Amino acid sequence: MEHYAGIDVSLECSSVCVVDANGKIVREAKVASEPEALIAWFRSLGFGLERIGLEAGPLSQWLFAAMKAAGLAVELLETRHVRNAFKAMPVKSDRNDARGIAQLMRLGWFRPVHCKSLSAQETRSLLTARKLVQAKLLDVENSLRGILRGFGLKVGKVTARTFAGRIQELVAGHPHLERIAAALLAVREILRKEFAAFEKQTRRMVRADQQARLLTSVPAVGPIVALTYASAIDDPGRFKSSKQVGAHFGLTPKKHQSGETDYTGRISKIGDGAVRTALYEAAHIMLTKPVKGCAQLKSWAMRIARRAGMSKAKVALARRLAVIMHRMLVDQTPFNAAAAAA
Description:
alpha/beta, Nucleotidyltransferase, domain 5, 3 domains, five-stranded mixed sheet, two-stranded antiparallel sheet, globular
C-alpha cells in the first residue's frame, strides 16, 4: 500500500505524520528539525513513501535539499496554498498541520515550489544584508535631522560627504547635542564603510555571475536589479514560457469571474516582492531618465501612460522587462531593442 507523509517544520522539533492510501494515520511523531534526524526516522519506518511534503519556510529549503540528496521523494509546498487549504480547520496545531499536509500529499492537492540553489540563496542573503545596512544608515541620518530640528537647527540639503561636517557645525556650542551627534555620526561612519563594502562585493558578484552580467545589457538594469532577478529565477528552465514570469512575480491583474460578475483588479502582488520592486525601479528609470537603447520600449510604455496613467505604464513595463530578461537567460543572448519591442 502507498504511504504519504507531511512535516510541519518548527525551530526545534517538527511534527511528522504518515498516512496510507486510504487516509488512515499510520505513524505520528515529534522529530528534531535536523536533516539527519528526519532521514533516520523515515528510514526506520520499514516501508517506502510515495511523497513527503513540507511547507516552504526559513528552515524548509535546508531540510528539503538534504532529504532530496538522501533519495527521499520530498516536495516543497507553496505557503499560500497550504494556508488556504487549512482555513476550514477548526483547531490549528503543529500536529494537525502535519496531518493536513500528509492528506494534501495523498490527494495531490498541492503546487510544488522551486527550491533555490545554494548560490542563489547566498546572493539573496547578500542583497538582504546590503538593504538592511542601507536602511539603518538612512534611519541614523534622518534621526539626526529630526533631533536637531527640535532645537531649530536645520540641516538642509547636503551630500553624503558633507553631512557630518554640517552636523558638527550646527551642534557646536551645545554640549548635550555634541555628545549625541558624535555618537550617531560614529555609528553612521561604520554603516557607511560596511555599505561601501557591500557595494564592492555586489559588483564583484555581477562580474563573476554570467547570468547577472548578461542582464546588465538591458537599459536601466544595474547590478542590484540584475542580481535580484537572476537569484530569484535561479533556473530559467523551470518556466515553460517567459510569459509565466510576470504572473510568478505578481505583476499581472487579479481576476474574479462568477456568474454575471466579471472583475479585473489590480496586480496580484504575489511572489517575490524584492523582484517586483527592482523591476518597477528599472521601469521608472527607463521612463523618467534619458536612457539610450530603449526608444521602442519607452514609446510603447508612454502610449499606455497617456491612456491609463504613468503608474500603470511603469507596472506594464516592469512586467515586460521580466519577460524579456527571462528570454535573455533562456537564449543566453544580450538585450536586443528590436526583438524586445516585437
